[in-house]
Design goal:
This protein is of the alpha+beta class and 176 residues long. The chain is 39% helix and 11% strand.
Length: 176
């Protein structure tokens, strides 16, 4: 994602999940908000996960509650993979992501991270206006979120990641 943003030359950059759970034409919902002074406009699924198994819904609700207690209390959905930034905002924030700086070994396969949470936290910390916009969304990620997915372990890992972001802030790692 960072390499794509780093090489972008437009005024606005969008990143989206490869599976297109949010159709690309939903960008039309986000673009008008940049003209209203927002530096970050994110797609949102709201607080419900249509067609998700009960355990997945429970874990999503738990994550939302914990995350809103620790970080970003005004944002409902930090995890929707459909986010747009003014290019200057993205190029300022992405290099500060500790997620990239703390990887001390080669990562292979799936890794749970609070990448989105850290990104939005940094945008907020740097006084960039964030707008959350409802978008069409349907879970199309059948490969990595199949029935073998361990929602409990993923939720525990996400909680640790959120505390990592909060501790990095306390330690001043985001200051400068």
């Amino acid at each position: 994602v960072w390499k794509g943003i780093e090489s972008s030359s437009g005024d606005i950059v969008l990143f989206t999940d490869m599976d297109q759970s949010t159709p690309i034409n939903e960008i039309s919902q986000l673009l008008p908000w940049f003209e209203k002074g927002f530096g970050v406009v994110i797609g949102s699924r709201g607080t419900t996960r249509k067609d998700a198994p009960f355990l997945r819904k429970l874990m999503a609700y738990s994550f939302l509650t914990l995350r809103r207690t620790i970080l970003l209390s005004d944002i409902e959905d930090t995890q929707c993979g459909f986010k747009a930034f003014k290019i200057d905002v993205a190029k300022k924030i992405f290099p500060k992501l500790q997620f990239f700086q703390e990887i001390d070994k080669e990562v292979k396969g799936w890794r749970v991270s609070a990448f989105d949470v850290e990104l939005l936290f940094l945008a907020q910390k740097n006084s960039h206006k964030i707008k959350e916009v409802k978008v069409a969304w349907k879970d199309r990620d059948l490969a990595s979120k199949g029935k073998n997915k361990n929602f409990l372990k993923e939720s525990k890992d996400m909680a640790k990641e959120m505390f990592r972001v909060r501790m990095n802030d306390f330690r001043g790692r985001y200051d400068n």
